[in-house]
Design goal:
The complex is a heterodimer of chains A (542) and B (474).
Chain A (H helix, E strand, L loop, with lengths): L1 H20 L5 H25 L8 E9 L4 E7 L1 H21 L7 H20 L3 H22 L4 H34 L6 H7 L5 H18 L8 H8 L2 H26 L1 H27 L4 H22 L2 H32 L15 H15 L5 H15 L7 H25 L16 H19 L2 H23 L24 H11 L6
Antiparallel strand pairs in A: 1-2
Helix pairs in contact in A: 1-2, 1-4, 2-3, 2-4, 3-4, 3-10, 3-13, 3-17, 3-18, 4-5, 5-6, 5-10, 6-8, 6-9, 8-10, 9-12, 10-12, 10-13, 11-12, 11-16, 12-13, 12-15, 12-16, 13-14, 13-15, 13-17, 13-18, 14-16, 14-17, 15-16, 15-17
Chain B lengths: L1 H8 L1 H19 L4 H21 L6 E2 L4 E2 L2 H27 L6 H18 L3 H19 L6 H32 L4 H10 L4 H18 L8 H8 L2 H26 L5 H23 L4 H22 L2 H28 L15 H4 L1 H15 L5 H15 L3 H27 L14 H17 L2 H10 L1
Helix pairs in contact in B: 2-3, 2-5, 3-4, 4-5, 4-11, 4-14, 4-19, 5-6, 5-11, 6-7, 6-11, 7-9, 7-10, 8-11, 10-11, 10-13, 11-13, 11-14, 12-13, 12-18, 13-14, 13-17, 13-18, 14-16, 14-17, 14-19, 14-20, 16-18, 16-19, 17-18, 17-19
Classes of the chains: A mainly alpha (542), B mainly alpha (474).
Chain lengths: 542, 474
């Protein structure tokens, strides 16, 4: 199975090289190669999911090949429940993004599809790397193709947006580089040898004195928070989203932002727990500010892409809040929300892209009254909107609910307020999303051209239907997804609580005995988990 | 017999000297000899590189402790000869296009390389000085090679006057060292220092003056003033050559010297050099941002890269020296590649050197643009290219020595540098071409680019063999 994991990185990379070797006039071939490669990668990721043993703690499909021995840098890969879900999300969105590129991308197709393949390989590398050096290599490698995708195939102001995207990300990540090197040197001076091995560092780093941890925490967190983007570091996002081509926006919102939240879980919580305790309230509050601010700004937008971009700021706030609640529920919710946001926001961007293809405008005022003319489209957009707004029964609800629940009962935040204010964000989300939907679909067409719009055709349906299927699957039956990540997150939270309070309420997962036992609260079926948590929630204060 | 053994283990130095003389003689005695000179130089350099490989396992010093042989010096023989070959391949089409292919060019290039290789082998202050001077004087002449262009003449004159001044410092420093320790060979100096029989004040002054001289040669702030004008005025292939070979040779030359001087290099010196390094990185990168002439921009960026190189010096550790050598090697390929792209785009009499001339290059010449992007990404320090690993390695050395602040300054410099390197990318990829950029394809210069590109990728992705070599011989 190790080779399947390597394959998920190698197949897109092979696709990249193969496309480079193809003559540029064979456009059909280029399309075929990239789609095939991305579908094969998806198949490999699903194979990983099937082979994954959710009850086992630690990393699976572990691979470590020596690379640069002088600095103990290795080609170390492995996945746990946290990264597996994001790998699935990435591989799932990529074929859809490629399908969405077939029509709008008309020039320099060879470079475009090559860049998309390189991007996929690099993104997957970020999620599966277990070596700080390797992680950094992939992290930076994501920048290069995305920079070109925005800059070459983007809208009118694309050069500015691409540059802003690149520089913002680079500023954060270079400080992270210093921290990565610093950690390695610390290991050399206190634990024998320089290392970039994540599994060694996770034992070394938490023993750092707190004064040093603070610095390192921020060196990492700054880089991740820019990527998330956490308020007030979010200003690159609307520009990048508005200018990027549709598929670029889908990948940007769907996967690239998750690299930041993934990094917060993987590196900040894992390596610098004591500093995380200290800064959890601050970051959680920034998350809350992001939720409210993003929602309010989204409400005022007339450009559809900008509206969705700000809604991303708001949704990602929930994720950060969930992460820094440092509870199992909160982290489960955050992780699920990462997937959900990727799906629902991805779909919204796809829908906007479809409209843009027809009308070449993204102004809300230009539209209206589309529902009678594009009935299929209207239903699908409705589903995306409702999923994004967190309607129970669809996927968005579970993630947001669990995040808020985690925040409410967090022993680390020790305040009810972030959860309450965060919950207001859900109401605001409903407000701006319904306003968006209303302006788009109902009322009088803002422009006579709208009378002649045709409904979406099979290629477009092919992009949207898989997403809708997942909305329903996660919304109605989240168990397989929650179960995938449960053990990994449980272990993480148990470690954090142990460090902070000396005890932990988390039952360390043991192999289930054959006899039926009443499972401790929080273990077992997610539906049960929800009920259990609802019961345990403190009664509303008078 | 003894003499023959010594001669054979110092074969690269001897051969490059003979080769340079031979090409000069060909120039004197054969009419229309450019083709012969070109091929002789090319094959000769291949032989020199082969000799470098053959003598790797040699060790110790030869000729009464004048030259060290084998090890890192042999490695740099290969590297410098390779840089010479890459320059030759790029220079021929360039000079032909400018209708100025005279064969002095080849002999001057070889003499510069002879100086560089001697510098790499130096184990004695006299050979150190001889190497630096032979190289520098050849550079002065090469900078003024376009003798009808005022800018080229200005470059040569400026370089020569300031260079001669710096040589004074260098020589004075050497004299002080001699005065303090009574020895000129590195081993003898080292022994005196360890015994404590060297005069400390005189020694410190000597080290300081030496650093000033070296600082001038590799363009450390505040001794960098000559760089932009000289690099801009000199013919582009010459700039490519002297900005890479010049720096790499001085770096390999100063390492054994300062390894010998290590007992004398106190924390004070380390801190001072760290500050110079920080200043160099910041100034080079900041001033590069506002340049619109691409040669000038690369000139300032080469100043900044000298600053990064100094980080290894600050560390004063084995990893620091290894980091310097690795970065110097990476720098040779990426900077040479970038300058050769400039040389290919350039047209007679300094046309097409502005950033705006690169607009839409990727539409007309996708391969050229892609290669340029790789060199620029590597110069920025993005993975998986050689420049990234070089920086990573230097950072580990600096941080291990307790200079975390220097690493932070270095990344700030890198952020700034990303801005202007990206400016070139923006022009090449995101702007529309306004006229057709005719580029002679299939010229030998493309070989230079491909070879440099392979080197940049190989060093970036598989640095281990190179590092293991350095570990073994440093």
């Amino acid at each position: 199975m190790v080779w399947v994991l390597v394959g998920t990185l190698a197949v897109p990379l092979a696709g990249f090289l193969f496309i480079l070797a193809l003559p540029r006039r064979h456009v059909r071939w280029i399309h075929a190669v990239s789609l095939t490669a991305s579908l094969v990668t998806l198949a490999l990721a699903i194979a990983l999911w099937i082979a994954f043993r959710p009850n086992e703690a630690g990393f699976q499909f572990h691979i470590a090949v020596r690379w640069i021995e002088a600095l103990d840098i290795g080609f170390r890969l492995g996945i746990d429940g946290i990264s597996l879900l994001l790998v699935l999300l990435t591989t799932f969105l990529m074929p859809i993004a490629l399908l969405a590129s077939l029509e709008p991308i008309r020039h320099r197709q060879k470079e475009y599809y090559a860049m998309m393949m390189l991007l996929e390989s690099a993104m997957l590398g970020v999620f599966v790397a277990l070596d700080t050096f390797l992680f950094y290599v992939f992290w930076e490698l994501v920048l290069i193709p995305m920079y070109f995708i925005i800059g070459i195939w983007g809208g009118g102001n694309r050069v500015y947006a691409a540059l802003k995207f690149f520089l913002y990300t680079l500023v954060g990540s270079l400080l992270m580089l210093v921290a990565i090197v610093w950690l390695g040197v610390y290991a050399e001076q206190h634990a024998g040898s320089f290392t970039a091995d994540f599994e060694r560092l996770r034992y070394i780093a938490p023993n750092l004195p707190i004064e040093l941890q603070r610095w390192l925490f921020w060196a990492f967190a700054l880089s991740f928070c820019i990527k998330v983007p956490l308020f007030p570091l979010h200003t690159w996002l609307p520009d990048a989203h508005v200018e990027a081509p549709t598929a670029g926006s889908v990948i940007l919102a769907g996967v690239l932002l998750k690299m930041g939240t993934y990094g917060l879980v993987r590196f900040n919580l894992e390596l610098f727990p004591q500093a995380s305790f200290e800064y959890a309230p601050l970051l959680a509050w920034l998350g809350v500010v992001g939720i409210l601010y993003g929602a309010l700004v989204a409400f005022a937008q007339n450009d559809m892409k900008k509206l969705i971009a700000y809604s991303s700021v708001s949704h990602l706030g929930f994720i950060v809040l969930g992460i820094f609640s440092m509870t199992v529920e909160g982290l489960q919710g955050a992780l699920l929300q990462m997937v959900n946001h990727g799906l629902s926001t991805g779909m919204l961007f796809l829908c906007v892209g479809m409209l843009y293809e027809r009308r070449h405008t993204r102004e809300l005022a230009e539209f209206g009254g589309l529902a009678p003319r594009m009935p299929v489209f209207a239903v699908l957009v409705a589903l995306a909107v409702l999923s994004s707004a967190g309607l129970p029964g669809l996927n968005g609800f579970i993630g947001e609910f669990l995040s808020l629940l985690g925040a409410a009962q967090s022993r680390f935040l020790d305040s009810f307020l972030p959860a309450v204010l965060g919950a207001c964000g859900i109401i605001l989300a409903a407000a701006y999303l319904l306003k968006f939907y209303h302006a788009l679909m109902f009322g009088q067409p803002g422009n006579p051209e709208n009378y002649h719009l045709r409904d979406i055709h099979w290629l477009e349906r092919l992009q949207l239907l898989p997403l809708v299927a997942l909305f329903l699957l996660i919304g109605l039956y989240p168990r397989p997804f929650l179960q995938t990540s449960e053990v990994a997150l449980r272990g993480l939270v148990a470690k954090l609580e142990q460090l902070r309070f000396g005890t932990t309420t988390i039952g360390v997962p043991e192999p289930k005995p054959p006899s039926e036992q009443p499972s401790p609260p929080g273990v077992g079926e997610p539906q049960k988990l929800l009920e259990e948590q609802l019961r345990r929630m403190p009664p509303p204060r008078p | 017999m003894e003499f023959v053994t010594q001669l054979s283990s110092a074969a690269p130095v001897v051969m490059i000297g003979l080769l340079a003389t031979a090409v000069m003689l060909i120039d004197a005695f054969v009419r229309d000899s450019t083709t012969i000179a070109f091929w002789t130089s090319l094959i000769g350099l291949l032989v020199v590189a082969g000799a470098g490989i053959a003598t790797v396992s040699a060790s110790g010093t030869v000729f009464s402790g004048m030259l060290s042989v084998g090890g890192t010096a042999a490695l740099f023989d290969v590297l410098l000869a390779l840089a010479g070959i890459l320059t030759l391949l790029a220079a021929r089409p360039y000079l032909r296009r400018e209708v100025r292919e005279y064969d002095e060019f080849y002999s001057l290039l070889l003499f510069a390389l002879a100086g560089a290789i001697m510098l790499a082998h130096s184990a004695h202050l006299i050979t150190f000085f001889l190497g630096i001077e032979l190289m520098s004087i050849s550079f002065y002449v090469l900078a003024g090679y376009f003798r009808s262009q005022p800018r080229s003449i200005e470059a040569a004159l400026k370089y020569f006057l300031l260079g001669a001044f710096a040589t004074g410092f260098l020589l004075y420093g050497i004299a002080m060292l001699y005065g303090s320790s009574g020895a000129l060979s590195y081993t003898a100096i080292h022994e005196h220092l360890q015994k404590g029989s060297a005069l400390p004040t005189l020694l410190l002054i000597g080290v300081g003056l030496l650093l000033v001289g070296i600082g001038f040669k590799i363009a450390i702030v505040p001794f960098h003033q000559w760089v932009p004008d000289v690099y801009q005025g000199a013919p582009t292939v010459v700039t490519a050559f002297m900005s890479t070979v010049g720096k790499a040779a001085v770096v390999i030359g100063l390492i054994p010297l300062f390894q010998a001087l290590q007992p004398a290099v106190e924390t004070k010196v380390q801190v001072a050099v760290a500050m110079l390094s920080a200043l160099t990185i910041l100034l080079g990168n900041i001033v590069a941002v506002v340049q619109s002439n691409i040669k000038r921009m690369l000139a300032y960026s080469s100043i900044a890269h000298a600053g990064y190189l100094l980080m290894g010096f600050v560390a004063q550790s084995e990893r620091g020296w290894a980091g310097m050598l690795f970065y110097a090697a990476a720098y040779v390929f990426m900077q040479l590649g970038a300058f050769v792209v400039v040389a290919i785009i350039e047209r007679e009499n300094e046309h097409r050197l502005e950033l705006s001339d690169y607009a839409g290059l990727s539409r007309r010449h996708p391969v050229l643009a892609a290669l340029m992007s790789i060199f620029l990404f590597s110069l920025t320090g993005l993975p998986p290219f050689a420049g990234f690993f070089g920086k990573y390695y230097l950072f580990t050395a600096a941080i291990a020595a307790g200079y975390t602040w220097l690493a932070i300054i270095a990344v700030i410099g890198t952020m700034i540098s990303a801005y202007f390197y990206l400016g070139v990318l923006v022009a090449m990829y995101f702007r529309e071409p306004h006229e057709s950029l005719a580029v002679a394809h299939g010229s030998t210069a493309m070989w230079t680019l491909w070879l440099s590109c392979i080197a940049v990728l190989a060093l970036g992705i598989f640095p281990t063999p190179f590092l293991q070599f350095l570990e073994r011989f440093l």
